[in-house]
Write a structure and sequence with these properties.
This protein has about 950 residues and is an alpha/beta fold. The protein has 38 helices and 13 strands. Helix content is about 55%, strand content about 5%. A hairpin with a 4-residue loop joins strand 1 and strand 2. The protein starts with a helix and ends in an 11-residue tail after the last helix. Pfam families: CHAT.
Length: about 950
């Protein structure tokens, strides 16, 4: 480089003032100074570069064909000086000269892509300095054009993709539009794929894509993105290689501060992910070195102060050392002071400093710190432009902080107003907006004079965006655990306000959980086979998000049409009243403070209400614990358990008390309200469909009763069925069969690792006998009962009977399933088949109607999943004694196959009669007696459209 520089200087020295080559020689010298500046970072070289390039342009004839080159070159040097010194005049000149250079560049000129790219970079600089989104749009426009003009295989192609990814990332951070984030990921992925190993830009490529995955994780919450962020963003060997290439701190290389800063970011990201203090210390070390190496007046100086201030804040919150908090405030204050007015980072600087003063107020209790915190947070909010994704958070932070730390009633209204603003802004991450609405609801619920209904309505409106169709089933399931029983609390609040219809809607809207399975990997591969530049670690998630957005856009279009305003929206109370086609449906809402029954009656247009003050959520939780303990002690955890010691005693007194409390506090008051406390024959007995919420979903309402008092058991008066949601009943409208049903029976007598089920042979034999001349009967047992064979047969049959072991997966409910010859047939595979208008599913296995205790308000289990395709499901809340199952199945099918019809309560009536007969056999000694399983396990028919 020095030899080239020396030759060019000598050539220029021997060129006369009138020589036509003078502009060329001056331009060459200017470019040499640029090269040396970029290598060594000496500002004098930068100044010399500008001097010679300006002279080259000045002495160039106006019509000279190289004029555009001179202008573009000069624009590059002004851009270099702006990035070094930060003077806006230099940035404006850079844009001016680059624009002129591009204007006079012919369409077929080989430098045309470079000219577009350079101008796009300057518009990025101006956007980041001034915050004008028009500059960001121009940046994307010019960078896109540069990419389109760069041929495949060109060495600049990775950089073009990376630069465009930067601008899309900037626009995502400004607008919160997920499409921009997806485009950023796409271009960063392509840039990384095209960058050779050991290329000096490789660490930047990894860091960029890792940061984008981190942004998507914070937006959507998918753990897969967090793992990708870790893979790409870890401060690995490649980062250290690049740092070493930039030289030692004493070398003064201009890239060295940026390399230290980038490495600090990587360590900081890993600290936030792992909590390892070593990473935090490394982040502080590298941020400190970056700051020390950044010259005064450099435009990155505010960022350097802000980064180290944030790291000291993290260390204070971890270790509690006040000295770290003081340093955090010192560096953040300096960052704010160095940030010019109008800079897009200015609101964030105010917000960060306000957060540190808030920490100091909590530690020291000094009101002056509280006032400073409120001052800076107020300023941050005022400076944040409309539509910015940080706006909701700043509203929430200011409101919540103000009231939380003063407790003054005058601040309460301001706090609630802030939360209202936060909930109405769609630019932020849905999970954040949902958190704001939940905090609003929590705060409003604390005071009797405040109406929390608006807050709950806002939270429920956000819920579909938080529990998003684009997320994986496992992620939606995990997000549900964060909703804090929202539907229960909202329904209770509405009920307390006598808004029974609203309470019914909210309970339903908040509890409906769609068990859409993840697409097969093969389907994703086929879909992506024609997608150019796709990367394997992003295909599935990116495709899912794109399809979900397309689905949402189509819904929006449909709802814009007259008459389709409520297309695929959750039903209103008037629509939900239709579920009681053939008998009452009783929704029981059990919250922390209240228990109420909302009653839907056939032909009625108003929701009935029964207050149940004797029961609460804590009582229900304790009752479930008692039952679970009994089942554990007795070994009633799976079908086929052995009864040890001959006879098993009656349920422990505590469980008897559980059933008595359910009767006294819940079931009996409801039956009194309905006028059902009378005796009927089975054929005349009324049918109730129970829809419990919260912890009540684990309790056997169908077995409630005082077993020491005659006529004081629920099954003495009514036939009970369950539904996980009211929507399931609306979707299970019965149809009149046009032919005899086709019945599939599946049995597994022996499953590796599980107890033998000899009763399945007798069970299927009795079903076959009843099906003779009444139904088309098919059977799959033993080695023939594979997952594929069973699924195919289910498609061809109306009814299915599954007699085997089952498993309830509490981590991912779609992985719950039935154990067949070749493994587990899970719910995801079943729901992927999209069965339509099926009749009966009889799940003769253990715990097929038991959900997840972490989500007591979500009836997510095998029975509710089967309701997606079957009108009626018979399932069990607990384990099935192997010798009982054939008895119950025999009695159920003897009634059902008389007319082959289900869906109007016939399945519930048949099951009620079957369990009654079983109970008589136990009480008479015909079967072993006393097992609590017999009294209240069967009867958990998950849902039926009752008659």
């Amino acid at each position: 480089m020095e030899k080239s520089f020396d030759c060019r200087m000598r050539a220029l020295g021997s060129t006369s003032e009138n020589d036509a080559e003078l502009p060329v020689r001056m331009g060459d010298v200017g470019r040499s100074y640029t090269m040396r500046y970029r290598r060594l970072g000496d500002v004098d070289d930068l100044e010399k570069s500008l001097e010679y390039k300006c002279r080259a342009l000045t002495v160039s004839p106006h019509e000279h064909p190289d004029l555009s080159d001179r202008q573009a070159d000069l624009g590059v040097s002004y851009g270099d000086r702006y990035r070094r010194i930060g003077g806006m005049a230099d940035l404006e000149k850079s844009i001016e000269y680059k624009s002129r250079g591009l204007l006079f560049t012919p369409d077929d000129h080989p430098d045309l892509p470079d000219r577009h790219a350079a101008l796009g970079a300057s518009y990025t600089d101006r956007y980041r300095r001034m915050g004008d989104i028009a500059d960001l749009e121009k940046s994307i426009e010019y960078k896109s054009r540069a990419l389109a003009l760069t041929p495949d295989g060109h060495p600049d192609l990775p950089g073009r993709h990376a630069a465009l990814g930067v601008s899309y990332g900037d626009r995502y951070r400004r607008t919160g539009d997920m499409v921009d984030l997806e485009k950023a990921i796409e271009h960063f992925s392509r840039a990384l794929a095209l960058t050779p190993d050991c290329h000096p830009d490789l660490p930047d490529r990894h860091a960029a894509i890792g940061a984008s995955y981190g942004n998507r994780y914070r937006r959507m919450g998918d753990v897969a993105d967090l793992e990708r962020n870790g893979r790409h963003g870890r401060p690995g060997e490649v980062n250290r290689i690049q740092l070493s290439r930039a030289g030692t701190d004493s070398d003064g290389h201009p890239d060295l501060p940026g390399r230290h800063a980038a490495l600090g970011v990587s360590y900081g990201d890993r600290y936030r992910r792992t909590g390892d203090m070593v990473d935090l210390e490394k982040a502080i070390e590298h941020f400190s070195r970056a700051l020390a190496l950044t010259p005064d007046g450099h435009p990155d100086l505010p960022d350097r102060h802000a980064a180290i201030g944030a790291s000291y804040g993290n260390r204070y919150r971890r270790m509690g050392d006040v000295a770290d908090l003081e340093k955090s405030i010192e560096y953040k204050s300096r960052a704010l002071a160095l940030t010019p007015d109008g800079h897009p980072d200015l609101p964030g600087r105010h917000a960060a400093l306000g957060a540190s003063y808030s920490d100091q107020y909590r530690r020291m209790g000094n009101m002056a710190d509280l006032e400073k915190s409120i001052e800076y947070k107020s300023r941050a909010l005022a400076l944040t432009p409309d539509g910015h994704p940080d706006l909701p958070g700043r509203h929430a932070a200011l409101g919540h902080h103000t009231y939380q730390h003063t407790g003054h009633p005058s601040h309460l209204d301001a706090c609630l107003t802030s939360f209202r603003h936060s909930s109405r802004l769609s630019s932020a991450a849905p999970r954040d907006v949902f958190d704001y609405t939940l905090r609003w609801a929590n705060l409003a619920s604390q005071y009797s004079y405040l109406n929390p209904l608006g807050a709950f309505r806002a939270a429920l409106d956000v819920l579909p965006h938080f529990i998003w169709l684009g997320a994986t089933t496992a992620q939606r399931y995990a997000n549900l655990a964060l909703t804090e029983n929202l539907a229960i609390r909202a329904g209770a609040a509405a009920t307390r306000s006598s808004e029974y219809g609203t309470g019914l809607e909210w309970l339903e809207h908040g509890r409906v959980y769609r068990l859409e399975p993840d697409p097969d990997a093969s389907q994703l591969d086929q879909t992506n086979s024609g997608a150019p530049g796709s990367r394997s670690d992003n295909d599935a998630l990116g495709l899912r998000y794109r399809l979900a957005r397309e689905y949402t856009d189509l819904l929006t279009q449909a709802r814009s049409l007259p008459g389709f305003e409520d297309f695929l929206r959750p039903p209103k109370a008037t629509g939900l009243m239709r579920v009681a086609r053939h008998g009452p449906v009783v929704v029981i809402n059990c919250s922390e403070d209240d228990c109420d029954a909302l009653v839907i009656l056939p032909g009625q247009d108003r929701v009935g209400h029964v207050s149940l003050p004797g029961y609460t959520e804590s009582k229900a939780t304790h009752a479930r614990s008692e039952i679970e303990q009994l089942l554990h002690n007795k070994g009633f955890r799976e079908r086929g358990f052995k009864l040890k010691g001959g006879r098993i005693k009656q349920p422990d007194p505590d469980v008897g008390l559980v059933l008595a409390d359910l009767w006294k506090d819940i079931v009996k008051p409801v039956l009194e309200y309905l006028g059902y406390l009378t005796n009927h024959t089975v054929d005349q007995m009324p049918h109730i469909t129970w829809c419990p919420t919260g912890a009540l979903t684990f309790l056997p309402l169908h077995a409630a009763g005082d077993y020491d008092q005659p006529g004081s058991r629920v099954f003495d008066h009514v036939i009970s069925s369950y539904t996980p949601t009211l929507t399931a009943l609306l979707a299970s409208a019965p149809t009149v069969p046009r032919r005899a049903p086709r019945l599939l029976a599946v049995g597994q007598m022996a499953t590796s690792g599980y107890s033998q089920l000899p009763g399945t042979a007798r069970e299927l034999a009795s079903i076959r006998a009843h099906a003779h001349n009444r139904a088309e009967y098919s059977q799959l047992t033993g080695s023939k009962a594979t997952s594929t064979a069973v699924l195919d047969a289910m498609e061809e049959h109306d009814w299915v009977h599954l007699a085997c072991h089952a498993h309830q997966n509490v981590t991912d409910p779609t992985k719950s399933g039935f154990f067949l010859h070749d493994g587990r047939l899970d719910l995801a595979a079943i729901t992927r088949q999209s069965f339509k208008s099926k009749g009966l599913a009889f799940l003769s296995a253990c715990q097929t109607a038991t959900g997840d205790e972490k989500l007591p308000d979500e009836a997510i289990h095998l029975a509710s999943g089967m309701l997606m395709g079957y009108r009626s499901v018979i399932a069990t809340m607990w384990s099935v004694i192997d010798e009982d199952a054939p008895v119950v199945a025999d009695m159920v099918y003897s009634r059902l196959l008389k007319d082959g019809n289900v869906g109007r309560g016939e399945a519930g009536r048949a099951l009620h009669a079957a369990v009654a007969r079983l109970r008589e056999k136990v009480e008479s000694g015909t079967l072993r007696d006393g097992c609590p399983n017999t009294n209240w396990n069967f009867g958990a028919e998950a849902s039926t459209s009752v008659s």
